[in-house]
Amino acid sequence: MNTKEDFLNGQILLIDKPLEWTSFQAVNALKWAIRKKFDLKKIKIGHAGTLDPLATGLLIICTGKFTKKIPELQGQVKEYTGTFTLGATTPSYDLETEVNETFPTEHITDASIKEATTKFLGEIDQVPPIFSALKKDGKRLYELAREGKQVEIKSRKIEILEFEITRTELPKVGFRVVCSKGTYIRSLAHDFGKALGSGAYLSELRRTKIGDFNVNNATSPNVFKEKLEASTST
């Protein structure tokens, strides 16, 4: 296990974020574990790209001098797997809010699902969800959404490098997406539903890769803490 100097000089830690944890909670759990272990007043620590509480998977956490690498890591291509639920929409485009509209799905076929994926490949304009942490006039969008305010959100250019349907058990559709920085998979779910002449929301999401880093090599915050506590201090 790493020494105090290792953490201060800089480490890239691969964490598998548990369901319902915020990215901030994961960073905090590591920060407290490292500070307690080495009796540190403070340590620089941060993550390279937020994951929503309802998503699991790869969170890259940088310590010490490696926090300078965060912008570079945030810009890497990402891979996600998960599930879209067709035939309904939610205001947040995921399970954070209740279903607000339902749509027919009888006309949807395997062929039309596969065909719809091709519409999203390459560089596309995407509108971020209203329930997101982006800021407008100094306030986060989700705060404005919860206040019931109407907000105009500008679209942004993103790139979908790969979009594959991995299983179809209507109304659920499994997918794998490789995409650029700034892509909202929730927005992709919403737009995918529209492309099928129906509705859709994101019901499951896991980030599996960031650049060359893979979730298979990641550890949960609790396991990290246990290993750190069990290691011999230096």
TrEMBL record:
Name of this protein: tRNA pseudouridine synthase B
Keyword terms of this UniProt record: Isomerase, tRNA processing
Stored Pfam families: TruB_C_2, TruB_N
Pseudouridine synthase II N-terminal domain boundaries: 37-185
Signal peptide range in chain numbering: none
Record-annotated tRNA pseudouridylate synthase B C-terminal domain positions: 186-218
This enzyme's EC code(s): 5.4.99.25
Active site: D52
Parts of the chain that traverse the membrane: none
Catalysis performed (reactions): uridine(55) in tRNA = pseudouridine(55) in tRNA
Membrane is among the record's keywords: no
Name of the top EC class for this enzyme: isomerase
Family per similarity comment: Belongs to the pseudouridine synthase TruB family. Type 1 subfamily.
UniProt GO MF annotations: tRNA pseudouridine(55) synthase activity
Functional description taken from the UniProt entry: Responsible for synthesis of pseudouridine from uracil-55 in the psi GC loop of transfer RNAs.
